[in-house]
Amino acid sequence: MIPKEKTSILFVCMGNICRSPTAEGVMRRYVEELGLSDSIFVDSAGTHDYHVGEAPDPRAQAAARRRGYDISGLRARQVTVEDFDRFNLVLAMDYNNLAALQAWCPPACEQKMGLLMPYAQSRRATIVHDPYYRNAKDFDHVLDAIEDACKGLLGAVTGDEGLVAELGRRSHTKLNAHSNAWAFPARVVNFRL
Fold this sequence. Notes:
38% of the residues lie in helices and 11% in strands. The chain has 193 residues and is α/β, with parallel strands linked by helices. It has a single domain, classed as Rossmann fold. β3 (89-92), α4 and β4 (113-115) form a beta-alpha-beta unit. The radius of gyration is 15 Å and the shape is globular.
């Protein structure tokens, strides 16, 4: 159970073994580094039950480990209807997963849903591409995008862009300016603590 006074964020992809656990691991570390664990709760889930109970994909774990994130203890789970009540923000990695969430979401919770990438600060991408059928290098590109978006999300949730600047100073990762060819409108969920 999530305490009512915490802001809660759920990251969602298809199987909960690549993108969404990576986002959970990145955001969790940012939250811990900034001493915000008492006010922000982070979790991840998948729209499908393909991998329930499994650890993240070994390639996702390896990419995360190279940057100092440990996601090995996470286990895949499927989104539940209760998640829409439990979480303040439910952020999908792409349009297909957002559509699946919209199909299940109670009407009263629709304003909680959106995409993660519109929070990115140095990327114009609207989605995080699925690296599952690609090579290990693509998992690094996914991590680049997620790190960028999670910094922006943290600034949006706290209303403190100084926190994002602090994370930028602490980060040893250089962001690459990748964009994708998708031309869909981005939806940013406006939320403040």
